[in-house]
Amino acid sequence: MILGVETSCDDTCAAVVAHDGAIRSNVVASQGLLHARYGGVVPEIASRRHLELVDAVVADALERAGASLDDVDTVAVTRGPGLIGALLVGLSSAKALAAARGLPLAPVDHLAGHVLASTLGDDPIEPPFVSLVASGGHTFLARVERPPGYAVLGQTLDDAAGEAFDKGARLLGLGYPGGAALDRLARGADAEAFDFPRSLPGDGLDFSFSGLKTALLYKVRDLGEEEAERRRADLAAAYQRAIVDALDARARQAIERAGARRFAIGGGVAANSELRERITATCAELGVDLWVPDRALCTDNAAMIAAASRFTRALEYPEYLSLDASARVA
Ligand code: KG4
Ligand code: ZN
To answer: 106 and 92, same structural domain?
Structure first.
């Protein structure tokens, strides 16, 4: 079995996954509340908290899997991109766990993890496929032929979709990170009550979300505090609709241009209920098979890191001791 460790941002994650993709455990210790009062993730606080939590989270993942380190033959860990101090905690822990038992270590790209989340479980997606990844830090469409590699077909030129959700949520007084709260607030509200811009830059498959939050800022200002508060749910619904429309439009174009037969979504924003419904309808209309991972496999987790590690060569001991974390996309 594979022990996965992921600490790229503010969630301390460990998972046990079998080589056939069966998930034995998937544990996430969220630091969300710790950072909420600062309105965003404070990197130094995140690293310290990872350090406090990582051993317990790994122990918990093993226990829930009914396994011990004796059952683990590979350790997989996120190497980047992410917050460098946060990544280093996971990487050092994974090195120590692997080295103590002479096990191989597989360094994994966090984004490949999101792209490949749908290769888990008893109905895994098979390449070739096209994947939409929308998270707090990244938004892109990718064509996957030989995992863990993927070709980026289009990406955001400014804010990520999750960032747009978080900034919108903050303007609506929903706290941080606000994507899931905005999703809940929007449920049942009138998405057509307000009109927000849908930006689809260029002829390619790129995204742009930075104008959207500015539009919301002005809208809230124009309405005034009281009226904006009263119409908060409609604002949330209309704002969410604009993000979902853009993601769906590009997904549709990517499927058509790539001639894809299989499509997957991933990343925290793939947990959004409206996006899940819309992409489901689009794929049904286009006759494309769709993989929508459980919400716990969309937001950051270590099972997807273990999943992606199955497609990379693991490094043997002591080769990996000098391995460094990488804040940027490798
Ligand atoms: O993939 P993820 O957990 O971490 C990154 O790699 O960034 O994504 C986190 C992002 C946050 O921006 C969060 O607000 C957003 O995913 N998110 C959602 C929902 N759940 C999480 N956005 C919209 N609707 C949701 N239900
Ligand atoms: Zn992520």
So the answer is: yes
